[in-house]
Amino acid sequence: MIRSGKEGTVGMDAKPRSSLGARVTERLRRAIIDGELELGDALSEDKLATTLGVSRSPVKEAFATLEQQGLIDVRPQRGSFVFLPTREDTENLCEFRKTIEIEAVRLAMSRRRDETLKAMRAAAEDMMAACEAGDNHRSARADDHFHDASLENCGNPYLFNAYQLVSSKVAALRSHRSTLPTRKNASAEHIAIVELLESNRITEGLDMLGTHVLMMAVRYGIEEEPLRLPGGRAARSAKLDHIGLLPD
Known about the structure:
This protein is mainly alpha-helical. It folds into two domains: 19-84, Orthogonal Bundle (Arc Repressor Mutant, subunit A); 87-219, Four Helix Bundle (Hemerythrin (Met), subunit A) (Up-down Bundle), CATH 1.20.120.530. The chain contains ten helices and five strands. The strands form two sheets. A three-stranded antiparallel beta sheet has the order 1-3-2. A hairpin with a 3-residue loop joins strand 2 (72-75) and strand 3. Helix 4 (87-111) packs antiparallel against helix 9 (202-214) and helix 5 (113-133) packs antiparallel against helix 6. The longest helix has 25 residues, at 87-111. The protein is elongated.
């Protein structure tokens, strides 16, 4: 998940209007990204409000914000659901990422080469260590940080903000869809990409990055569609056991 506040970036993602709404939004966003809520889960404003210990108003506000971020689908007369991408959705997402990330790396290497490579190398090595330790959460976050590095150092706020449109979705897919073997393969590719860039083999590094990003459609693709209700939504209701009251 790309982090705002870095030099040369300007965040323009949708934000809730109230501080409580912001806290509820962030809690639900993390629950989706970290796998506490499953992709396709049906969400109830009433149940979430009770679970979090808040009124429905900040939950409704959070739903609106998360819908703009692509993490929740709100269907009138049907309900609200955690996003559930089809294979086509995932392929389109990969094509978008490839276009954005290749240009971001190209710019970052010309404008902030040392900072970019340092961040990419650290994230690649952290992901490798996390995979060896079997720490799925840490490896997913290190994967995020590897791909965020170029966006945070490219010096182009338009590229940065374009990637923010999908960064939460990408982070959630990494948590929900990847397995240890796919993480190990991705980790090895990260190391190879960094080594190419460090040796100034930029074209080869960008080509490998493009192939690596497109592989997400294979690694995280949906092999079998889940059972759905009329209207195309998954039938499972969200389990809220791990959510708990909103911290003070």
